């Protein structure tokens, strides 16, 4: 089965996770994650593989998309899933192998909660570094992350105002 056929089959078999809008010239689709509104423009010619996988850790199957330029991401029950990037952070302890955009929401809310308490700045900084790795990974996978970067910058300013230098 071609990568295009795999993607189309996955979208039919997993309704409600993503919305697909075909390009006018049928060269690809805009794929929207219904939970967040995040989208990715997929050009069929850019895909080298689409592989359906299952794991005991997730109840539903997921589809790994491999691009000719070596990028990879997955379509999963959590939405788009992608590897973090440590290009800006360096190695991080306990860094998960994959992230999704819901993880950013949880991390940013966790940072806010930590900043609401005295003496939790170091923990907040650790969460900020995870969020940076998440956003760098999302950008490398082809996503626009400007609004999330603005949110994270505001949280960093709060950390700096508390006297923690980053």
Structural class computed from helices and strand pairing: alpha+beta
How is the main sheet built?
5 strands, antiparallel
CA distance, first residue to last residue: 49 Å
Strand percentage lies at 15-25%
Provide the helix percentage.
25-40%
Low-confidence stretches: none
Q: Tally the helices: what do you get?
A: 4
**What radius of gyration results from the CA coordinates?**
18 Å
> Which sequence of SSEs, written as H and E, runs from N to C?
HEEEEEEEEHHH
Number-wise, the strands total 8
**Average pLDDT figure:** 95
Domains, number: 2
Instruction: Going across the biggest sheet, name each strand in turn.
Output: 4-5-6-7-8
* Spatial shape: elongated
Question: Which labels suit this protein?
Answer:
single chain, 166 residues, alpha+beta, 2 domains, 4 helices, 8 strands, elongated
Describe this structure in words.
With 166 residues, the protein is an alpha+beta fold. It folds into 2 domains: 3-82, no CATH class; 99-161. It contains 4 helices and 8 strands; from the N terminus they run αββββββββααα. The strands form 2 sheets. It has a 5-stranded antiparallel sheet. A 3-stranded antiparallel sheet has the order 1-2-3, with no helix packed on it. Helix 2 runs parallel beside helix 4 (146-161). It is elongated.
């Amino acid at each position: 089965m071609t990568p295009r056929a795999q993607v189309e089959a996955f979208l039919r078999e997993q309704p409600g996770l993503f919305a697909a809008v075909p390009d006018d010239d049928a060269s690809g689709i805009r794929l929207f994650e219904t939970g967040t509104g995040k989208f990715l423009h997929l050009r069929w010619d850019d895909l080298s593989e689409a592989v359906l996988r299952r794991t005991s850790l997730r109840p539903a199957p997921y589809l790994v998309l491999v691009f000719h330029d070596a990028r990879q991401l997955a379509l999963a029950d959590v939405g788009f899933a992608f590897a973090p990037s440590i290009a800006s952070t360096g190695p991080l302890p306990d860094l998960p192998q994959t992230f999704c955009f819901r993880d950013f929401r949880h991390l940013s809310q966790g940072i806010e909660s930590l900043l609401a308490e005295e003496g939790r700045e170091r923990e907040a900084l650790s969460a900020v570094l995870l969020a940076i790795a998440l956003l760098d990974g999302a950008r490398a996978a082809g996503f626009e992350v400007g609004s999330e970067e603005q949110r994270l910058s505001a949280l960093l300013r709060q950390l700096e105002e508390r006297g923690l230098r980053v």
